[in-house]
Structures are given as C-alpha cells and as structure tokens.
From TrEMBL:
Similarity comment: family membership: Belongs to the glycosyl hydrolase 29 family.
Record keywords: Glycosidase, Hydrolase, Signal
Enzyme class: hydrolase
Protein name as annotated: alpha-L-fucosidase
Organism of derivation: Sphingopyxis granuli
Highest rank taxon of the organism: Bacteria
Amino acid sequence: MASTARTLAELNARTLPDWYQDAKFGIFIHWGAFAIPGFAPRLGSIGEAFARDYDRAVAMVPYTEWYWNAIKVPGTPSAEFHRAHYGDAPYEDFKQPFEAGLEHWDPAAWAEAFRDAGARYVVLVTKHHDGLCLWPSQIANPHQAGWTTGRDIVGELAAAVRAAGLRFGVYYSGGIDWTFNRRPLRTLGDFIASTPGGDYPAYAMAQVRELIDRYEPSVLWNDISWPTRPGPLYRLFADYYRAVPDGVVNDRWVAAGLQRDLLRIPLVRRYVDRKIKAAIARQGPDASQGIIPPEIPHSDFRTPEYAAFAEIQEKKWEATRGMSHSFGFNRNDDESDYSSADTLLHDFIDAVSRNGNLLLNIGPRATDAGIPDEQLRRLKRFGAWLRANGDAIYGTRPWTQSDGETECGLAVRFTAAPGRVNLIVKGPVADTRLVIKNLALSGKGVRLGDGSPVELEARGPDLQLTFASSCVDTVGTAVSVAV
C-alpha cells in the first residue's frame, strides 16, 4: 500500500508536457468492423438516449461503434436493421469486408488532411468495445481466435502521421470487451458492471504494454475504466512515462474496486439503475448534455464527451466529440445530421479559452477507407480559419478571464501568450468599430487575419476596437494585443 501511494505521488508530481498544452487540436479516429453496417438509431444524442429510454439505452445510443451490443437486444432499431440486411450473420463476419476495404486506404492522404486541418496530434482507436485489434497483436485473444487485422493499421498510420509532423496517440477500450463478456447490455448499471474479470485484466495489460513498446504513443487514451486494481495501473503509468517521457494519459482509468464488484450482483445493479434513472428524470433537459467522466487519482487531462466546461479549469481538459451524434461512420447521416463547421469552431475556441483542447472525431467508411465529404469539408474549414488565426490558439494559455461580450451581443473569448492577449470575436463583425463591454486593455492591436492594425480606445469601462478595414471572417475575428 505504501509503495502504491508513493508511486501515485510521483505520478502526480509530474508536469504536463508543453507540446500537449500547446497543441490545442487533435483528430480522433473511430474505424473498424462496425463501419461495415454503419448503423445506429438516429434519435438524438447519447444523453437523450439515456433520458428517453433508460431501460435499454445502451442498445439505443447513436454510436455506430456499439452496433454489436445493440443487435443483441431484440426490438431495437439496430436488431431490426441487422435482420433485414444480414439475416442471422454474426458480427464477426464484418471483419473480412473491413480488411478488404483496406486495399483503398491511403494513410499518407489521411495524415495530410489532418495536418492541413490544423491538427497537431492524432488518436486512433486501436481496439474498441468489439475487441477487434487494428494491429497484428502478439497477445492472443483466448475467446476470439484471430481477432486482429492482418495489416498493421496502427503502425502504418503512426508512421504517416509522424511523417506529416504530427504527434500520434492510441485509444484502447480497457473497460469493455465484448469478446470476453458477451452478455447484452441495456442499462448504465449493466454497462459499468460489464468490465470483464477472469483472464481479461492480464490480457488488457499485456496489450496496452505492447502498444507502448511497439508504437511509443504520445497519448495513451483509455476508455470507460480499467480492469486491474490501482497498484498495477500506477506501475503501468510509471513505465509508460519512462518509455515516452513527454507522453500523456487521459482520465478514463477508473480502477477495479469493491464498488464495481458489488455491481455484478443483479439486485445491487437494479438498485443503482433505479437511482440513476431517477437522477436523469430530475435533471430534465440537462440530462442530454453529454458525459463528464469522474475525476480519478491520476491523469494528465480530463475528457468531457459531447460536453464542455463553462469556465476556465485549473486542470487541463480535452473536449471529445464526433461531428454528428456518432463517432463511427453512420451510413444514414447527411448534412443535416452534422454540427455546422462554425458551431464546431466556436466550441473549439470556447475550449481553448478555458484551458481545453478539442479532439474532433472522424468516422471513415469501411468499404473504401474514405472519409465522408461532410467531414472533410469541416476539416478544411478548420484549416482555413487556423491558418489565418492560429496565433490566437496554438501555444496560448487562459487569460484572467475567458468570456466577454460586445455591445451588439457577440461573444468574445480571450487567450494569452507571453507579451500579448488575444481577443476572438465569435461571429460576423458588421462594422469597422466594435465595443467590448467591461474590458480594460491597452497596447498595440493587430488583426491576425491580415496583419492590419487595430486601434484600441477606452470608452468608460468598455473597450472600443477600430479596424482599418471591414472584417470578412464570419467564424471569428482574432485580434492580438501586445501588452
């Protein structure tokens, strides 16, 4: 126990690497056998699924990557879709067509698109809840023979991403693996209690160590929870940091303990589900606002999912989300299902001003390894805005305040860097003069989009900005003030 506490103290004494603090924008990739059916109910967000239909919510979420579980629950849209299109075919049959689609894959083209979008790091899902490994793992799955890809997707993408000048990270589903626990999951209690025991903890530990040894990822991104007790987990972190001194780990490593053990008892699980269901009902509309994982004893950053913090956070965080309601490819998504590029950029600006990054997901198709056009268009929009305004984003830190407002009602966000403060006005600026309420700031102002001067003048408690010419950027006008 003393050794575990000492290891934890050493982990927590470590400082966050500058590269991750500076990077701000990463790309998440959910890709696998689930992209062959590419189907999930289009009923709103994951939060709405739990609010509307808690008793089978895990099988009703909009995440296509949860398809294998959803088709096990009779009467769900996914089960009906599977019966209509694939009959009684098992989920495992999707592995072969997924691998066949790899003949079209160009990892260098993907990496180029991510770099041009302004991303500074990429995190690939190496094993999701279906247990399929996207690398030829030497750690054999004792319950699903050959459940890896023959082609080293992880290694090829890592090489392409690094050749493009970006950092590479890996996601691993440590808390869920449906090849080890095949029971259908309906409620959140079912989901939390389903972390496999038996031979799974050793398997997961060996695979994550294999990923570290083979690929030296800059980001180690676990999902849901972790199947071992804290001691082995903290040793894993310590070994990872020795192997990758500037690596970072996320916050989804809730270690096994008595609470999770108790949830394996059906009576306890039913009691917990009643409590959660009642809490969601009390929340009302707020219940659909996404997921914020609990804080744990050690992590480098937190990961709100389809959610964000409304104020500056002392601890680094990373908003993670898809462009539509799903992470994995959904064949039924069209333009109307996606958040607009402007909305995604505004949420990104919000996050950066509050000490956050954005890990924006793409969900490629499986049949041709292509990134949907709707997603590519949004990546290009990010790239165009960041090329003009990146100095207000990259390498910055939160200022004394994150939020402001103009006299005409536009939102303003602030970031800081040595010797300067950046103001980002969200939305179209209709005039060459703009007043920001309750802001005292002086210095030499420059509009980042074109380098033109911006005059700053106090107007009582407010600050007036006067631009040399009209502001044409409808997403956000960024001004850097040398102070």
